């Protein structure tokens, strides 16, 4: 049974204005940890697919648990919502909204959060997290803004051909730290845009990243390309990056 303390979550809804996104704004949900105090400063996790991370990944409940029971330093989570209609266009490097989303993220979202919440601003205290294409866009955000992002939590990243070409073109990724998980049952997943072997994709991406000096923590486990798998892996992924007090 879930401990009642885990369910006392503080999640604030926000809307950030944008001159890059066609809609002119984007919805966020911001998790504030137990004992939140504006005079302190906190590490911050930026999640793609924000609604899914909160609803299916249960990341707020997980954060409460690891903070309260595992002694993990309290941290803030920013879930960036996405309209699924435009998800591929925004998250894929060839998508027609990709550049606008990248600019929005680095030039509008980050200043908005850092102007309103007491988050730490050093790259080692910012974590990008994403599932599938959310892992992909996290990688491309880090490549675009290495001064902002050097750490990625990638859950079954969808590193398709173009992303792997971009990886291959990099000469030095020694500044990047990435935690990757992939499932043994992800070898023939139908994305709606084709059937892909995400296990093979992640193995290849791992090799490309390691060959360019990235610090890669990689694991394969029983699991499919779905939140039932990723939800179970979130605690270990978060605790890999966020220190125990």
UniProtKB/TrEMBL annotation:
Any Pfam family the entry gives: Esterase
Top-level division of the source organism's lineage: Bacteria
Matching InterPro entries: AB_hydrolase_fold (IPR029058), Esterase-like (IPR000801), Mycobacterial_A85_antigen (IPR050583)
PANTHER family: ENTEROCHELIN ESTERASE-RELATED, IRON(III) ENTEROBACTIN ESTERASE
The protein's name in its UniProt record: Enterochelin esterase
Source organism (scientific name): Paenibacillus glycanilyticus
